[in-house]
Design goal:
Length: 385
């Protein structure tokens, strides 16, 4: 079973490769990389029957004098798994053998069908795709801009002369294309907004999938620590019951409809309940971190002074304050965003030298474009007689 998660392990480790261009921060990587891997791992965990100690996801048994022993157990198991089992809410509390299992009148009593355990692997796989979509969209919108303009300056070891030549090329590109990166920066910001919306939507999706029981699922599980073990109601067994009922109907030899009541054990729900408890806490944490990250990016876009401070931190001591005074008045949001991504992929010393080179190119451009004023003698249009 260790080889089952080998591919996921390789994917999770790709983020540590040296020289790999990173366009997003660690919060975004939590969304598209860590969360995606966790959901795929949970999907494989639910799909692998070996983890539950049995090759069956459901086992149903019938008892009583009216039992027809000619019915194959495989037929009952398959029927109840496909058609969904149910519990009786009025038997959740009381002195019954199992919560939600007991006698009932189908015409009077409420019945709660529990069929979503069939869809758990597919829902988890769909969620993994949804968490990767914002990252995929960003890669499409970004269009490889950073990888094309960085000129290999993200390498750890470079020749000094080669590094100097690449810095000149990159500085020339940046100055020549100044104030043309705003649309590119807005697209990257929209992907962050989409990441937050995706987390909120996935919480809502699971809540709908579990019949509205997911929004308070983690809080109810945490509250069990303060309750009496003899009288408390386990929320895990309410959402993912281990024991359920199933009604099997068939025609007898004379054409009479026979109703068989069976008790079903769902060992797969032992794993399902723990997966969704973990997902509740993980998605709440992810919602908070993604929301704070979005607020931080909004503040950076609206406050130029904050952008300048962050740029100084990335450049380190290599670039002096006078250099930033020459650069920052010319930068718009898109220009800063490009420098920010470049700085996060370079060593501090290399990025500081690049900032100095950009300042030199900007000075040369300003001096070249500055109009030359010469003294001229202005002749009067009219002369007095």
């Amino acid at each position: 079973m260790l080889g089952l998660f080998g591919t996921l392990k390789q994917y999770a480790a790709t983020g540590t490769k040296a020289g790999k261009i990173e366009l997003e921060g660690w919060v975004s990587r939590l969304n598209y990389r860590v969360t995606c891997v966790l959901l795929l791992a949970c999907c494989l965990l639910v799909s692998a029957r070996e983890w539950i100690g049995n090759d069956r996801k459901i086992v149903c048994a019938m008892e009583g004098p009216s039992v027809d022993y000619h019915i194959s157990p495989n037929v009952i198991n398959s029927y109840c798994y496909i058609m969904a089992t149910f519990t009786v809410p009025k038997h959740v509390m009381g002195r019954q053998a199992h919560p939600g299992v007991g006698t009932f009148n189908p015409k009077v009593d409420d019945i709660s069908y529990k069929g979503y355990y069939q869809w758990v692997p597919m829902v988890l796989f769909l969620q993994a795709i949804m968490f990767y979509v914002p990252h995929l969209l960003l890669k499409v919108w970004e269009g490889g801009k950073v990888a094309n303009v960085i000129c290999g300056l993200n390498q750890l070891v470079m020749d000094r002369d080669d590094r100097r030549g690449k810095q000149v090329i990159l500085a020339n590109y940046f100055v020549n294309n100044l104030n043309s990166h705003n649309v590119w920066a807005v697209k990257m910001f929209l992907c962050k907004v989409l990441s937050l919306a995706n987390v909120v939507f996935n919480i809502y999706l699971i809540d709908v999938f579990l019949d509205g029981q997911f929004r308070t699922y983690g809080l109810r599980v945490a509250s069990l620590l303060d309750e009496d073990p003899l009288t408390r109601i386990d929320p895990l067994s309410q959402v993912f019951p281990r024991m359920t009922k199933c009604t099997f109907k068939k025609f007898g030899p004379s054409g009479t409809l026979q109703i068989h009541d069976s008790l079903c054990v769902l060992p797969i729900n032992i794993i399902n309940e723990k997966i969704f408890v973990f997902l509740w806490f993980w998605l709440i944490l992810l919602l908070v971190l993604t929301g704070l990250s979005l607020v931080y990016n909004m503040l950076v876009m609206m406050i130029p002074q904050l952008r300048n401070i962050l740029l100084k931190i990335q450049a380190g001591n290599k670039a002096k304050n006078a250099v930033f005074m020459d650069i920052t008045p010319h930068l718009q949001v898109g220009d800063w965003k490009l420098l920010d991504v470049l700085g996060s992929n370079m060593e501090t010393m290399v990025f500081g030298e690049l900032i100095q080179e950009v300042a030199v190119r900007m000075k040369e451009t300003d001096q070249r474009d500055k109009p030359i004023l010469t003294s001229m003698k202005i002749e009067p249009l009219f002369t007095t007689m």
